[in-house]
Write the structure tokens for this entry.
Amino acid sequence: MAEVEEQGRKLSEESTDESEEEDTEEEPKLKYERLTNGVTEILQKDAASCMTVHDKFLALGTHFGKVYLLDIQGNVTQKFEISPVKINQISLDESGDHVGICSEDGKVQVFGLYTREGFHENFDCPIKVMALHPQFIRSNNKQFVTGGNKLLLYERNWLNRWKTCVLHEGEGNITNVKWRANLIAWANNVGVKIYDISSKQRITNVLRDNTNLRPDMYPCSLCWKDNTTLIIGWGSSVKICVVKERDPTEMRDLPSRYVEIVSAFETEFFISGLAPLADQLVTLYYVKENSEHMEEEFRTRPRLDIIQPLPEGCEEISSDALTVRNFQENQCRDYRLEHSEGESLFYIISPKDIVVAKERDQDDHIDWLLEKKKYEEALMAAEISFKNIKRHDVQKIGMAYINHLVEKGDYDTAARKCQKVLGRNMDLWENEVYRFKTIGQLKAISQYLPRGDLRLRPAIYEMILHEFLKTDYEGFATLIREWPGELYNNMAIVQAVNEHLKKDPTNSILLTTLAELYTYDQRYDRALEIYLKLRHKDVYQLIHKHNLFSSIKDKIVLLMDFDKEKAVDMLLDNEDKISMDKVVEELKDRPELLHVYLHKLFKRDHHKGQKYHERQISLYAEFDRPNLLPFLRESMHCPLEKALEICQQRHFVEETVFLLSRMGNCRRALQMIMEELADVDKAIEFAKEQDDRELWEDLISYSIDKPPFITGLLNNIGTHVDPILLIHRIKEGMEIPNLRDSLVKILQDYNLQILLREGCKKILVADSLSLLQRMHRTQKRGVRVDEENICESCHTPILPPDTAQAFGVVVFHCRHMFHKECLPSPGTVLGTQYCNICSAKRRGPGSGILEMKK
């Protein structure tokens, strides 16, 4: 099993706080495991020299010239003995049906795994690399390349023979070759070339940067990310090249494609392999022993980093040092990195070990969070991906989180999480409740207990209620309000509350809670007594909800003392349950409360409580004089003599004036206004309301010797009485305040009346003329007479069957028609004819307009 170690910091950095390290520690991106089973046995006797990865299987070459086909678990499925010496390269086509192998002794073999066809050739020099056409399975693409001291292209012609073509030579040994679609990339001692097989043109030459490094010790790594993107790693240099189409106008003698280097940067260590991971790169580094950047225990171990390429650099995403077997004896050229394009699997190959790196899944992520005690994040991740996780259970993670919170002493959060974690598991709920009881934290979990369809045993809830009753009355009352009464034994809790009330009988919290318990137990009378005793606001709601009106007939005064408005509204809304007479009887000794009740009753219906109107007069006079006059105005049932007597006794002038006027004694009423109120404006207003000429005479006579009253009359009398009558009666020499202004106002009012009359006259004349013209036009119109019309007298058709004979018809403007002989002689008055039908209703509109003769 490969051990994954994160790169250590310098000793000075390790002195920071452990908590700070935990906060800044990042989760690994990859996880590792050693490829075992058949591979372990192979590498004990032999050493890996190369490996190729396909989605279906793995192909492993060894130093002893053998090739093994393996499944992804490392089990051997096939074995080929190719050569007695080292296998340098294995190449597979995309289908995985054909394999190409080259070895150190110059042997090259290409054959089908499921067919007998193949190619076998021995060269006189070592063949370092080879690559099959990705679509080798197709008959027209039977091509492959080999690389020793030159790069040769083999292809089968139409005669089923192989022909060769030299693509490149003269620059040293070919050390690597990769074929993708129509592009072949290879590396030699000078640099990297790319050849376009479709146009048969070499399109670029990327020179080697680290020329001081031996190419055989630090070989070039090539990897196609896609059909046009090549990643080159050589020494400590990385270049990302993109093959692009050239603009046709710029071609001339140039290749149709060109290469653009989109990113180039230097790395800290030597590159042994490259692979793409989305838009990032996975790099296998070889670290030399004299590196000062690594701790001693990690030196010479290979590193697998994930980096983010940038145009002029890179950003390190993660870095892992790998402990592979015999890593102390390996060099840069001994490591290879292969990847599976179908899955994010990366194979680190060394002579004595093969390690598989893969992206961490959600289970691995949760493992890491739990290891770092990040339980809340682990629970959230498990809930989000519960369909995808295989090794973890959401509830178990939740229980671990709750245990962690309890250990920390965060009891409230632990209790709150129980709702989500424990779900409908009754056993877990009860276990948690007893655990919280053991640690003395029942209060923390009480508000989160299930109380809906899922319920625990009543003993659990009673245990918590008893705990609160001992230490926290308010908390106990809150639970009683929030918990349904069915959760626990109500009688047992009532008994416990009564025991506590013996020690503190006036405790309002306990009394209120006891009333609520009685309500749950449907003992509403007991609850009502407590609510009334406490003057509790819920008393009215209790009465309405449980129809307790029969229980409050003798408690009306208590209800009124508590809240008059609510009590009266309730009584009036439920007259069918508590009669008006019963309420009046109960309130007879409390007249102020009786007045409130009868006043609201009168406001709702002026006639319903008519038999109590006489009593209401004295109640209004005693407790609510402002509403007495409106009551007297609106009531049709109060005795006026009794009301007058009470008002005169109490010297209520305004009310007495109203009653006198209503009883017809307007002169006495006016006299009281003038003598006792001395308010000329009110006297004038009273006279206007009565509209009595004699009353105006009395008002003038009373005011004639009082100059302020005369001024008031002059200002207001003009529209009701001729001002000349008042002016003639003013004594000569009497000084009247503001007389000039009053006379000017009288003249202005008179002028205004004249203008109004003239305006009305003009409008009347104009309307009369317009109507006359309309009538004239209407009467000038003809009236259609045909066979459908009938005589209104004889009810026969108005026209005779034979129109050739002489006949006479009379048609009126009202559209009634008569035969001339059928029109009665009384229809003629002073030479004018009238419709007999309409003349009974009115005269005029039916004057004859047409007489037809023939």
